[in-house]
Amino acid sequence: MKRRMLMIIGLLAVVLLSVMLFGCKAKNNPMPNEGDNIDHIGNSTGNIANGGIIAYKDNWVYFSNELDNLSIYKQKNNSEDAVKVNSDRSMFINVEEDWLYYSNISDSENGKLYKIKVDGTERTKLNDDNSSYINLAGDWIYYSNGSAGRNIYKIKTDGSKKTKLNEDYSSFVCVNGDWIYYTNGTDEKKIYKIKTDGTGRAKVSDDSASFLNIKEGWIYYINETEGNVLYKINVDGTGRTILLNSPVDYINVYDKWVYFSHRFSDNKLFRVNLEGKEEKIINYEVSKFINIAYDNVYYVNSFNKLYKTKLEGGKNLPMIK
Q1: Nearest-CA neighbor of 41 among 213, 175, 153?
Q2: Whole-structure pTM over 0.85, yes or no?
Q3: Distance CA 95, CA 203 (A)
Q4: What is the model's pLDDT at position 18?
Q5: What backbone phi and psi angles, to 5 degrees, belong to 210?
Q6: Domain tally for the chain?
Q7: CATH number of the domain enclosing 97
């Protein structure tokens, strides 16, 4: 079972290592990380930055189950019962209306983009590309195309109108309003933005960055140039601010807080407010790939098992007992 969750860690590690090497709203269920210009999105930018192993809508939580080869399961929020949805090894899960969208990382599929209904029917392949950092926004799906230099592409939710948007090696892709934000491995992982129609490409910051999160006009990120500390910057490139002057990992912005794994505290789970104040420990376990839904924080522990705890801290519970 440990080996199964290592599949998640292995895939994301490959993506992150590649970035370093190249660095020389759902309807009726708004995601609190996002702006107001998109009428519906498939997951939060913070969850997608952390592998998208959790998505949520209408009191259901959809997750990659490490006990069953990373197949997608669904579970009512705060319930212990779970129902299997597919048999694909799945990451970067998005949900909208009755559909789930995900990267199928099964050996034979190599990250191709799929969709399936939330009841497990009508499984459909949408492309043949290695697709990561999947963002569903409106009727389009945006992704980093590992089959084409990790350039950003978009495709309709029915698999039509596949369109190339940039020439950059793009990771930590975040769609917000009419803009896409990403780290550019072609330029030392600096933060860039481009419009969703492929125009207006511009550099936002000279910092080498990772784990981009977008909230209310701000980009929250890990500043690798200054030792993996927590920063924020306005989407127009102004207001660059340090929030926490100690190394962090796996950041996820939710509501009024930034949740993160603290490197100086054996990767235990902490949170700090959006101004860098009121730092608090949430649990005392190793916490990786932090995802958030409703009133729970989900994380992968030191045994590579998927666990959850309350946003304010509390008992640590396995996703499936």
Answers
A1: 175
A2: yes
A3: 30
A4: 39
A5: -155, 170
A6: 1
A7: 2.120.10.30
